[in-house]
Amino acid sequence: MIFPNNVVVSRACNIAGNRDTVKQRISSNQISYRQWLTVNDTSLDVRTADIPFYTAELANVDNPADADTIFWQVHKSDMQPLLGGLAFYNLQSDSTTVQLYYVFQNKWYKPWNKMASVFYDKRISPSIDSSLMRLKRAVEAQP
Questions:
Q1: How far apart are CA 7 and CA 114, in angstroms?
Q2: Per residue of the chain (143 residues), what is the pLDDT tens digit?
Q3: CA gap 69, 8 in Å, rounded
Q4: Quick one: CA torsion of 25, 67, 104, 119, rounded to 10 degrees?
Q5: In the 3-class helix/strand/coil scheme, how is the chain assigned residue by residue?
Q6: Residues 65, 61, 45, CA angle at the centre, nearest 5°?
Q7: Closest Cα to residue 96, out of 74, 70, 59?
Q8: Are 94 and 16 in contact (CB under 8 A)?
Q9: Disulfide engineering: 128 pairs with which of 3, 11, 58, 64, CB 3.0-4.6 Å?
Q10: Sheet containing 69-76: which strands, arranged edge to edge?
Q11: Which residues contact 54 (CB under 8 A, 6 or more apart)?
Q12: Arch. (CATH architecture) of 6-141
């Protein structure tokens, strides 16, 4: 089928502060993932890694331990892990552009799953937007 095997859904926002400070607060769990990503849902388990969980065509294979990105999986007992990441860009001196994204991987032999991937953006975008706004408030509330 002509639908892609991998679908990336992402949103971005600007957060006050420099890239290293924002990334350090998140990666050190000073701002908990439960606080902004999983909304205190105890049935979800977030696991982070220094390297991407993704295939070579979705990640920068020349530098797999990209210092500007945090990669994670969100696990729930009865579901396949949700793959995602948080990328940090210093485009302005007084703020950091933060991109939250999820990667959905479909099997080539599951045409109905691939067809359903057309609607991933519409289904998950409101959740990504609210997660980014919670993250923005949490980061900007800290001194």
A1: 9
A2: 566 677 788 899 999 988 888 888 888 888 888 889 888 788 888 888 766 655 555 544 444 333 478 888 888 888 788 888 898 888 888 888 999 998 887 776 666 666 677 778 888 888 899 999 999 999 988 87
A3: 15
A4: 70
A5: CCCCCEEEEEEEEEEECCHHHHHHHHHCCCCCHHHHCCCCCCCEEEEEECCCCCCHHHCCCCCCCCCCEEEEEEEECCCCCEEEEEEEECCCCCEEEEEEEEEEECCCCCHHHHHHHHHHHHHHHHHHHHHHHHHHHHHHHCC
A6: 50
A7: 70
A8: yes
A9: 11
A10: 6-16, 95-105, 82-89, 69-76, 44-49
A11: 6, 71, 83, 103
A12: 2-Layer Sandwich (3.30)
Query: In whole angstroms, what is the distance from residue 139 CA to residue 124 CA?
Result: 23
- Between CA 132 and CA 42 the distance in angstroms is 20
Which two structure tokens, joined as six digits, stand for 124? 């998950």
* Structure-token pair, residue 115: 């067809």
Cβ(77)–Cβ(45) under 8 Å?
no
- The contacts of residue 56 (CB under 8 Å, 6+ apart) are none
